[in-house]
Design a protein that fits this description.
This protein is α/β, with parallel strands linked by helices and 750 residues long. The protein contains 25 helices and 25 strands.
Length: 750
């Protein structure tokens, strides 16, 4: 079996993916295994073992696809279960409990009144009686939006429960896993008391895997430059910790080599629990433990076998790890670096550059599938960041962590030094980000493009390793062309789209013309927080991901219907991040609302009756004709034709404005009506509908909104006219895809 465990790992992967892979791909795996037997590359025994493993993991995948138990929602529920996956921050704690049938899990959350207060008796493995009201996680309702429901289901979690008060839970008992987590809690508490907030946040993230206190701008900066692996405990951290401990224990003659191995084995068995239990941490710890174990036993095991065995062990423990992004990144990068070990024959600097480049290349399709963009210069940033944190940052943080218990004063002083160095480096990153962040917004990569990319990458590495530099350059050019082709593809696409985004209680429409002749937004709603203050949640979670998913990095123009936050609240962020040429609005728009927008974006006032001619598109403003002194009544009323259909966008205009439109344009007809004011009963007069004779109506309204939109009488009026209604609160985002003069509507939610 030595040197052949990767075959078993591939068989396990095939078994897990049998439900989601096309049959032809699974057949290809089986044919490959049969070919290896035929050519005597593997024994028949290994073939049988691999097939048995494939069937085992296929069986495990079927267990994970069983329908979850149907439990009552929005009703008080009491259940008894042991708890697992306990996680705690200053704001809340969460854990999992099993459903009554023990076939799936419920995610339980408790928002703490006191940051340092812990629920009594709560510990991993404890048996708890708890009560609350179950709810189902919210699914994504827009293209490109993070699907929280799917994310939880991949962890076999189908319900959520929020504890309202301490009395809702009582626990007894514990397990082995409680001890390292109690140490973790004490460690986090000590960092908060002794260190400054900056250093404490970094120690917590890099040593204990608790990143909730890191500066949000710093996290976003590291994500933009593909440095997020530095903020998470990974193989680099584990290898560094193990090397430092081994050096100190052996060179200072504190322990013999055999006892040092035993100590490290125990440390690595416990540390992943202390660090939060992420798959990447377990992968790194198990690999080091496996290498040490076989070295002590005198067994020579290739590194590729080590990583394959760890892969099998983790998936056997939890098959859902396969869908964890950290798991995918960790194994893919590790495998690529191991397979390409012969490439690194130059100096330290060249080897660092080569590993950084290969790491970026191998994760590119996964990165694009998550964020829909890539940063061509991120490899150079990694070239500087990795040595700094590997040889200075992480060792400093590790030393600070030890000194917290031995000499708190020294830990505090060393923390001040780390803060000075780290803030200087982060400030440098910000300076580079301001002048050199030029992302390639690729949009969603088709699976065929990803397969082609990995094939070219394998050929590139093979040519590089064998010294065929000219061929390597050719394959490298193909690697560059593939993501570039994804960026340029929309300019060859004859399909246009009008998308009504589901942003809750507000409006945001995206118009994409064929052949990328133009991208325009009609309104871009903002959001408000629990304290009723404006937030960027809608922009960050809905609008920006949608535009990136569609490969859009530039917006030609925005039509701002009127000055309400639920229509223009995200325009400021759009003008900052998407190179918006202009914002067009009515003569009666409240000008102070535009003060926070990017000054490079032109603010253009539009007069009723004017026809705006854009490349490939015409749109006419029908109202407002006069200043009504109210934002809603001053809404832009716009008429256009797209995909062979006539459209009328009403903003928040009411029945009085509808009457004026009918009087000024008595022959006006519209195939598609964007219903005014989210379906409020102040709009959509039946007489207005009779004149327009629309076939379809679009209503943008939030789920269970406090206004009761859309009003029952409006819905009834639309139904009486046999008008098909599309609603974001029930359909999610609604897309009208068109080519030439024909098109179809499709909701995002089934």
């Amino acid at each position: 079996m030595t040197g052949k465990w990767h075959i078993v790992a591939l068989a396990a992967l095939g078994g897990l993916l049998a439900h989601t892979l096309h049959a032809i791909l699974l057949l290809g795996l089986l044919s490959w295994l049969a070919l290896l037997v035929h050519t005597r590359r593997i024994s028949f025994v290994l073939f049988l073992f691999s097939m048995s493993v494939c069937l085992l993991f296929f069986f495990l995948s079927t267990l994970n696809q069983d329908s979850p138990p149907v439990l009552p929602l929005d009703e008080p529920l009491q259940l008894t279960s042991t708890i697992s996956h306990l996680s705690e921050t200053d704001e809340h704690l969460s854990f999992r409990v099993q459903t009554p049938t023990h076939s799936s899990f419920i995610l339980v959350t408790y928002f703490k009144q006191d940051a340092r207060k812990h629920l009594p008796g709560l510990a991993p493995g404890a048996t708890c009686v708890l009560q609350g009201i179950l709810s189902e996680p919210e699914p994504a309702t827009n293209p490109g939006e993070f699907d929280y429901k799917q994310y939880l289901q991949q962890k076999n979690i189908y319900y959520e429960l929020e504890l309202k008060k301490e009395q809702d839970i009582s626990c007894k008992g514990t397990s082995f896993f409680a001890f390292p987590l109690k140490i973790r809690s004490a460690f986090l508490d000590k960092t908060d008391k002794i260190l400054d907030s900056h250093t404490a946040a970094w120690v917590q993230a890099m040593i204990a895997g608790e990143d909730s206190n890191l500066n949000e701008q710093t996290v976003q900066l590291f994500n933009r430059w593909s440095l997020s692996h530095i903020l998470a405990i990974s193989g680099m951290h584990i290898a560094l910790f193990s090397a430092i401990l081994y050096f100190l224990l052996t060179k200072l003659q504190l322990l013999t080599q055999e006892k040092t191995y035993a100590f490290l084995f125990g440390f690595l068995a416990v540390y992943p629990i202390f660090a939060g239990g992420e798959p990447s941490v377990w992968r790194s710890a198990l690999m080091v433990m496996l290498i040490m174990l076989f070295k002590v036993l005198g067994i020579k095991l290739p590194i590729i076998d080590s990583i394959s065995i760890v892969f099998l062990l983790l998936l056997l423990f939890d098959p859902n790890y396969l869908f964890h992004v950290g798991f995918q990144f960790s194994f893919l990068v590790s495998l690529a670096l191991l397979l390409s070990a012969k490439i690194y024959t130059g100096s330290f600097i060249s080897a660092l550059l080569e590993t950084s480049l290969l790491s970026q290349l191998v994760i590119l399709p996964l990165q694009v599938s998550q964020f829909f963009f890539l940063n061509p210069l991120s490899g150079l940033m990694n070239l500087f960041a990795i040595p700094f944190y590997t040889f200075l940052g992480i060792p400093l943080l590790l030393l600070i962590s030890v000194l917290l218990f031995l000499s708190p004063g020294a830990a505090n002083k060393l923390g001040s030094l780390f803060k000075l160095l780290n803030e200087t480096v982060i400030e440098l990153f910000h300076l580079v980000d301001d002048v050199a962040f030029f992302p390639w917004v690729t949009g969603k990569l088709p699976i065929g493009i990803s397969v082609l990319y990995f094939a070219a990458l394998v050929l590139f590495c093979a040519a590089w390793e064998t010294g065929k530099r000219k061929k390597a350059v050719h394959y490298g050019a193909v690697l560059t062309v593939i993501p570039l082709a994804a960026v340029l593809w929309p300019y060859a696409d004859q399909t246009g789209r009008v998308t009504m985004l589901d942003i809750g209680q507000g409006d945001a429409f995206v118009v994409e013309l064929p052949y990328r002749r133009g991208v325009y937004l009609i309104d871009a709603a903002g959001s408000v927080g629990m304290d009723f203050q404006p937030t960027d949640k809608t922009f960050e979670q809905v609008i920006k991901p949608y535009l990136y998913q569609r490969g859009i990095s530039k917006v030609d123009g925005i039509f701002a219907s009127h000055a309400d936050h639920d229509h223009i609240g995200s325009i400021g962020r759009l003008t900052e991040e998407f190179h918006v040429d202009w914002v067009r609005t009515s003569l009666y728009f409240e000008k102070q609302q535009a003060q926070q927008w990017n000054p490079d974006t032109k603010l253009i006032y539009w007069k009723a009756g004017e026809l705006l001619q854009l490349p490939g598109w015409e749109i006419q403003l029908l109202g407002p004709v006069t200043d009504k002194s109210e934002p809603n009544e001053n809404s832009l009323v716009m008429y256009t034709k797209l995909g062979g259909k006539s459209w009328l966008f009403m903003g928040d205009a009411g029945k009085e404005e509808e009457a004026e439109i009918m009087e000024r344009y008595p022959s006006l007809r519209a195939d598609i009506l964007k219903v005014g004011h989210h379906g409020s009963n102040t709009s959509t007069d039946p007489a207005f509908l009779r004149q327009l004779e629309p076939e379809e109506a679009l209503i943008s309204a939030g789920r269970k909104n406090r206004y009761g939109h859309p009003a029952p009488e409006v819905v009834e009026a639309l139904k009486n006219q046999n008008i098909r209604i599309w609603r974001t609160d029930t359909d999610g985002a609604v897309v009208y895809s068109f080519s030439g003069k024909t098109g179809t509507f499709s909701p995002y939610l089934p």
